[in-house]
Amino acid sequence: MSILETLKSIHTEAMEKLKAGRTAEELDQLRVSTLGKNGQLTAILRTMGKLLPEERAAVGAEANRIKQAFESALESRRKELAAIAQQARFEAETLDVTAPGENKRPMGRLHPMTQTYREIRDALVGMGFSLFGGPEIELDDNNFTLLNLPKDHPARDMQDTFYVNENVVLRTHTSPCEIRALKGVKPPFRLVMPGRVFRVDEVDASHSPVFMQMEGFIMDRNLTLGDLKGTLDAFIHAVFGENVKTRLRPSYFPFTEPSAEMDMSCTICGGKGCRVCKGTGWIEILGCGVTNPHELENCGFDPSEWTALAFGIGVDRVASLKYGITDIRLEYENDARFLRQF
Ligand code: DAH
Questions:
Q1: What's the 241 CA to ligand 1 centre distance in angstroms?
Q2: Among 216, 218, 196, which Cα is nearest to 208's?
Q3: How far is residue 222 from each of residues 182, 191, 313, measured CA to CA in Å?
Q4: For the chain: N or C, fewer Cβ within 10 A?
Q5: Which residues pair with 291 in a beta bridge?
Q6: How far is CA 250 from CA 263, 281, 284, 290, 292, in A?
Q7: Atom 3, ligand 1: which residue's CA is nearest?
Q8: Residue 324: helix, strand or coil by DSSP?
Q9: Cα 128 to the center of its chain, rounded Å
């Protein structure tokens, strides 16, 4: 092989290796093995002294051309690789700010008691009731006396009371809101009055010293027990669905005359009889009645002109029946594992 041919083959080989080079290190190695102290091209150039003078010019010129061509190819390949590497880095660093987050945070939710409270409230508001309320720490007068339960009335024993002092109690029911309504709201009205109430009770599956009630209170001229029954039926159906049956059962409350309790067909067994309804198929759901004329008189109204209808319902009771919760403690303990189910 002539020296010119050798030069050409070195060049071709170097250019091929150059194309195949994938990294800056590979290119460096190639440069050293071609142009370095012990490089192939350098070795050829060293033998130039042995050439005839007329050959020397041609070989020298060719060697230089190859060297320059190789160096510039090396440089552009280097730039190419750098650009590819930069592009890859840009792609790896791309941040899609519209992508959904990776670690899902648990969603908050409403407590079943809050859900139930809102359902009852919304059913009544949908029927034209307005929200009204009173304080948890209440005058004995409002909680008892003006509701037709004077100091030594035996029915006071029905509700074991936390006394703050002789005249002040933690309200034992939401009925004192009736007194506040009679004294503060101009009739006719339809009011729903929710809130926490308190009774001296040991905690067990069906008792809690604090629980939630809602009082319904309607006042107008010429109201009848039929209006009460119609209102309660519509209300119970709005909360529990059209399929439940209701019945009014005579009862006694000092603040109503006549008084009744409303039962509804058991939501657990559908009325066939089960442990929850004690085999009767019925469950007591609220107390109600036509407001006792004494209560109206106590607040300055003439019972021959005005009639009021009232009912009181326990929110925990409704939640228990809606969700099949058989232990009231679950509703107040706030165990997250329990609450997550609703
Ligand atoms: N206040 C009664 C209780 O806590 C419930 C009740 C019964 C409220 C009859 C009423 C009613 O408004 O008319 O047991």
A1: 23
A2: 196
A3: 17, 17, 24
A4: N
A5: 256
A6: 11, 18, 12, 12, 15
A7: 173
A8: coil
A9: 29
Q: Residue 85 and residue 138: Cα distance in Å, rounded?
A: 77
Could you tell which of 156, 255, 284, 316 is best to mutate to test the pocket of ligand 1, judged by most ligand atoms within 8 Å of the CB? 255
Task: Describe the strand order of the beta sheet including 163-165 as a list of residue ranges.
Answer: 137-139, 168-170, 163-165
Q: What radius of gyration do the chain's Cα atoms show?
A: 46
- The closest of 68, 40, 44 to 56, measured between CA atoms, is 44
What is 132-145 written as a DSSP string? ----SEEEHHHHTG
14 close to 30: Cβ distance less than 8 angstroms: yes
The answer to pTM > 0.85 is: no
Q: d(Cα 232, Cα 264) in Å, to the nearest integer?
A: 11
Instruction: Give the tens place of pLDDT for each residue, 307-340.
Output: 999 999 999 999 988 888 889 999 989 999 999 8
Question: Which residues neighbour 58 within 8 Å (Cβ) at sequence distance 6 or greater?
Answer: 4
Asked whether 264 and 285 are in contact (CB, 8 A), the reply is yes
Token couple for 12? 């071709």
Burial of 112-127, coded b for 16+ CB within 10 Å and e otherwise, reads bbeebbebbbebbeee
pLDDT at 244: 95
Containing 69, the helix (H) or strand (E) segment is: helix 53-93
Mind listing the pLDDT tens digit for each residue in 233-269?
999 999 999 999 999 999 999 999 999 999 999 988 8
